[in-house]
Structure formats: structure tokens, C-alpha cells
Specification:
By secondary structure, this protein is an all-alpha fold. The protein is built from 15 helices and no strands.
Length: 291
């Protein structure tokens, strides 16, 4: 010990850990500052600008923009698509999660990879795929046309596009929860004479409820904010096939900037609500894990 101290004095070594402490004193604030500046330029400043542009002429013009026929039609269409897509993908996600989370079978990894395709494929490409399948010159186009069913540039195509891009969220949130919970409680309930529906409703669903709700919230947020795939298959026809994100783009191109920013504020507030609900569910999930 004495020899080490003498060496340190002889060669002017800094006291133990002092250099590291000095390094840490500037590294942490620097990284935090970089993160704050980056978030400010990419997220906070644009968001504040949207709110400023929407309200710079006052609250009354903002409210009048939200009561215009074009905005109301876009909002109603967005809500209708969401009301269809979210329940459908919730049921699909539960079924897919159950199959993947409760069974080991050949091709399981491939099935999970296929489930993640909407994450990997650009929404615009997804919209183009739907056009190539259901368009007038697509694989199923002539059959649908002979039956009098219009998919592309119509409501069914928009539902299909939204369903595709929101497909994985529920399943990807529920699968890890199912694997973490295991099957002990379900097997115990079966031993006590419960049928499959009773096991699912009274045992499985309570265990996965927070993961399920988290997936539903993400699905809802993506369905309301989807632009790329819907823009390809909808045609963006005002009062017919125009959702809120498409309305924002169209209004801005038509130099109705106040109306565009007002609609953008609505979408931004929906995103804030989503973030708040996510935070609440994450806390609920962490509390459940601790218990």
C-alpha cells in the first residue's frame, strides 16, 4: 500500500478515481444537452409551431375550422375505419398470440417473422401491394368488378390498408406476456374442471389485460394517423375517401394552412393522449410484475 502511494507521488499520478470523476462531470451534462437540443429541433419546436399556427388568429377561427364540412367528413371517416380495424386486429392479435405463445411447432419463428412484415415494409409499398391485388387490373380485380365490389379508391381498400399496417401491434404486445405468465394457472384451472372459455375469461385475460390494452392503444393510434398506405389506395377524394392525415396534406397544398394546422393539432392531441395512456399502462404493468 505504501509503495503504491510513493509511486503515485513520484510519477504525479492523479488521486484514485479523480480523473474518472472529472470525466463524468462533463460527459453526462453534455449527453443530456445533446439529447435535449436534438429533441427540441426534431420534436418540440415543430410541435409548438403547429399549435402556434393553428391558434395565431384566435380560438374562434380554430374552432370554425374544426366544424367545416371537409374536416368533419375526414374525422368521421377516420373514426369509422378505426372502429372497424381495431376490433378486428384485436381479435386476430389475440388468436395469433395464443397460437405462438402457447405452442411450439415447426415454422413458429417464420410465423413470427411474417407477423412483423408490416413493420419492415413501407406503408406506400403496402398500399401498392393492395392495388396490385384488388385493383381493376389486379389479381382479384376482374372478379370483384364482375361482382360490383369496388375496393381501390373506395372505403374497403382504406380499411384493408389500415388493417395491414396495424396488424402486428396486439400480437407483439401479448406474446411476451403470455410467455412470461406461463401455463401453471391455466393447467390448475383445467384440473379444477374449468372449460376453455372459463379458463380464457377468468385466468388468461386478467393476466394479459395490460399488454392487450397497450397493443390496442398502439393499434388505435396507428390507425388514426396512417397516411402512406391509405393515400395510395384511397385517391384522396374530399368528403369521400379523405381521412384526417390526408385532409391535412390536401388543405396545406390548397393554401388553407390554418385549416391544415387545426387538423394537425387534433391529431397531435390524439398522440398526446396515446402517450399518456401508454405511460399509465406501463406503470400498471410494472406494478403487476412487482406483485
Amino acid at each position: 500500500m505504501t509503495a503504491n502511494l510513493n509511486l503515485s507521488k513520484e510519477y504525479n499520478f492523479p488521486p484514485g478515481g479523480s480523473a474518472r470523476k472529472k470525466e463524468k462531470t462533463w460527459v453526462k451534462p453534455t449527453l443530456i444537452g445533446i439529447a435535449i437540443v436534438y429533441l427540441g429541433l426534431i420534436l418540440f419546436v415543430p410541435a409548438l409551431n403547429v399549435f402556434y399556427q393553428a391558434f395565431k388568429k384566435g380560438v374562434d377561427p380554430f374552432l370554425s375550422n374544426l366544424t367545416s364540412p371537409d374536416f368533419l367528413s375526414a374525422a368521421q371517416l377516420t373514426l369509422l375505419i378505426t372502429l372497424i380495424v381495431v376490433p378486428v386486429n384485436t381479435v386476430f392479435g389475440l388468436c395469433a398470440a395464443w397460437v405462438i405463445g402457447r405452442n411450439k411447432f415447426p415454422g413458429r419463428t417464420l410465423l413470427i417473422s411474417i407477423l412483423d412484415v408490416p413493420f419492415a415494409v413501407s406503408p406506400v409499398v403496402a398500399g401498392l401491394m393492395i392495388v396490385l391485388l384488388y385493383g381493376r387490373l389486379g389479381w382479384f380485380g376482374p372478379l370483384l368488378e364482375s361482382a360490383g365490389i369496388k375496393v381501390i379508391f373506395a372505403f374497403p381498400g382504406m380499411v384493408l390498408a389500415t388493417a395491414f399496417v396495424t396488424l402486428p401491434f396486439v400480437a407483439r404486445e401479448v406474446i411476451p406476456v403470455l410467455e412470461e405468465v406461463g401455463t401453471d394457472q391455466e393447467e390448475a384451472a383445467k384440473t379444477l374442471g374449468a372449460n376453455d372459455w372459463q379458463i380464457f375469461w377468468n385466468v388468461t385475460l386478467p393476466n394479459i389485460r395490460w399488454g392487450l390494452l397497450y397493443g390496442v392503444i398502439l393499434t388505435n393510434a396507428r390507425a388514426m394517423g396512417e397516411f402512406g398506405a391509405v393515400s395510395v389506395v384511397s385517391g384522396n377524394i374530399a368528403k369521400k375517401t379523405q381521412t384526417l392525415p390526408l385532409f391535412v396534406e390536401d388543405a396545406y397544398k390548397q393554401y388553407a394552412t390554418q385549416s391544415a394546422f387545426s387538423a394537425a393539432v387534433v391529431l397531435g392531441l390524439l398522440a398526446v393522449v396515446t402517450l399518456v395512456l401508454q405511460e399509465v399502462l406501463e406503470k400498471k404493468t410494472s406494478i403487476k410484475e412487482v406483485e
